[in-house]
Amino acid sequence: MANSELANSELANSEKVHPLIRLIRYGRAYRQQIWQATLCSIMNKVFDLAPPVLIGVAVDTVVEQQNSLLGRLGIQDVQTQFMVLAALTFLIWSLESLFEYAYARLWRNLAQQVQHSLRLDAYSHLQELDLAYFEERSTGGLMAILNDDINQLERFLDFGANEVLQVLTTVLVIGVGFFVVAPSVAWMAMLPIPFILWGSFTFQKLLAPRYAEVRERVGLLNSRLSNNLSGIVTIKSFVTEAYEVDRLRVESDAYRQSNHRAINLSAAFTPLIRVIILFGFTSLLVYGGLATVAGTLAVGTYSTLVFMIQRLLWPLTRLGETLDQYQRAMASTNRVMNLLDTPIAIHSGELPLEEGRDRKAGNAEHGKESHALPDNPYPIDGELYLKEVTFAYQDGSPVVKNLSLHIPAGKTIAIVGSTGSGKSTLVKLILRLYEIQSGCILLDGIDIRELRLQELRRAIGWVSQDVFLFHGTVLENITYGSPVATLNEAITAAKIAEAHDFIEQLPKGYDTIVGERGQKLSGGQRQRLAIARAILKNPPILILDEATSAVDNETEAAIQRSLERITQNRTTIAIAHRLSTIRNADRIYVMEQGQLVEQGTHEDLLERQGVYANLWRVQMGIK
């Protein structure tokens, strides 16, 4: 079975497990807090049910006096009996309040801890997934899981879990008490319970798919909003505001309709429960009263039963609201757990870079030239070798086919080709952002799949054609990935990247906020900050993926000067559309449709009059 099929099979099996079971499994680390909160909820309800019993005892004392329950226990004086009742009332109310404070504090803190851990675990797991996972899903949909769904679960743990426990405690305590003190009429009070429970489980099964649909609609709605906010400039430039409002209206209406279907069903639960409860309450009221008049049931006992059946049955009317909250939480739990159960396709190796270097040295042939780089902070030389590499995106034809090429340590090589030839994909394979289907990629003679993933990526500096800057200051973006770097080091890197002059002209210099995705800066400015960020990282391998694609000719010339300095004695892979920027590369590889078709220096390739020469003539305007 293929890896993707196996992963889908594992995910499908996990989805068959009830979401509550999946949540309990996840919450094993919080077992102690859960048990403490559960105990406090139960004890609070036990003491909450005690006042009706005290009322019954008080009525019994008024009616029977010395023959009351307390009188039979040896307290004959009526005044003393009421003093005992007052003391018990004070104690019970105090304990009830104490346990209410305890369970509220425990459940709410537990909800905060679980949502905090779950969000971090989900986000951490998300970062481990390969790029193919993100290509099939929208940012808004993933945001809905990490934010809305986890918050929905938090709300249930805040209040819903306690409600469920207290309803169960009420049914158990009162049910047992009824059969102890008045078995002849207890069945009347308990008769509605099986029907209520049956109705609850029936409604749960009917509500589950409806709330699952609601959560899916939330994801789609968030996706639309996220996409539109990111593309607000395009929307304005094409004057499509009204069109986007209409599209949002469709998504929002679909969310409203899915909620409408769920609400129609959940709203019917409480009225139906009330009707069932009515029969139990009326039966006890009538038959219990007749038994009291006939003398077979004590007045105090009858009073207690009337009060207690209200405490038993009427809270069940809130079960509909609790069940509604529970189903929303379970639908959200399913989505979060599905994310956590998504298998990781790219696994890190166990070999540190240092051991990889030692192994290479041990396997090296006697007399082989060393490519050790001066002042290299990483324990690698930077030699790359791709052997018969084949890669295809999911359900697609191969983008790279049986590709073999050599990238010597400390040299600058260029990869060129027409759009879609596989140049940028090749870079992502070296970074292991995707996993190759066949062949191997060697770093200093070691398969990169054997190396620790973080150490591999840390040793590679990548300047992408699609520059991403984080919302923060200029300095924070330059030092991103190099958190211990000093301001002077950042300034030095900016000067090498020809960025220092324009940074000094910004309102707050290096403390200027660049905006989301660096929208306050021009394309060329963003590009130079990205280059400064890579320079500061000082990696032994530098990848420049169309690094000068968004700059003007003057800025390109400046960046080329800085690149000539930083690529000295550093393995550099330059992917370029402008051939003029890579004409001085030590070697140029030409790719077409995922295969290597030409290689050589700039002059060699021009003399061959092949693909590279044609590209050169087109760009230079030579007929």
What does this structure look like?
- The chain is of the alpha/beta class.
- The protein has 2 domains: 28-340, ABC transporter transmembrane region fold (Up-down Bundle), CATH 1.20.1560; 355-364 and 371-456 and 586-623, 3-Layer(aba) Sandwich (Rossmann fold).
- The protein is 63% helix and 9% strand.
- It has 25 helices and 10 strands.
- The protein has helices at residues 3-15, 19-26, 31-48, 50-64, 69-72, 78-128, 131-135, 139-181, 183-190, 192-230, 232-237, 241-267, 269-293, 299-313, 319-340, 353-363, 423-430, 453-458, 474-478, 487-496, 500-504, 523-537, 553-566, 602-608, 611-620, and strands spanning 384-392, 398-407, 412-417, 438-443, 446-447, 460-463, 541-545, 571-575, 587-592, 595-600.
- The chain has a 6-stranded mixed β-sheet with strand order 6-7-8-3-9-10, sandwiched between helices. Strands 2-1-4-5 form a 4-stranded antiparallel β-sheet.
- Residues 1-8 and 359-375 have low confidence and may be disordered.
Q: In terms of topology, how is this protein built?
A:
Layout: H1 3-15, H2 19-26, H3 31-48, H4 50-64, H5 69-72, H6 78-128, H7 131-135, H8 139-181, H9 183-190, H10 192-230, H11 232-237, H12 241-267, H13 269-293, H14 299-313, H15 319-340, H16 353-363, E1 384-392, E2 398-407, E3 412-417, H17 423-430, E4 438-443, E5 446-447, H18 453-458, E6 460-463, H19 474-478, H20 487-496, H21 500-504, H22 523-537, E7 541-545, H23 553-566, E8 571-575, E9 587-592, E10 595-600, H24 602-608, H25 611-620
Parallel strand pairs: 3-8, 3-9, 6-7, 7-8
Antiparallel strand pairs: 1-2, 1-4, 4-5, 9-10
Helix pairs in contact: 2-15, 3-6, 3-8, 4-6, 4-14, 6-8, 6-15, 8-9, 8-10, 8-14, 8-15, 9-13, 10-12, 10-13, 10-15, 13-14, 20-22, 24-25
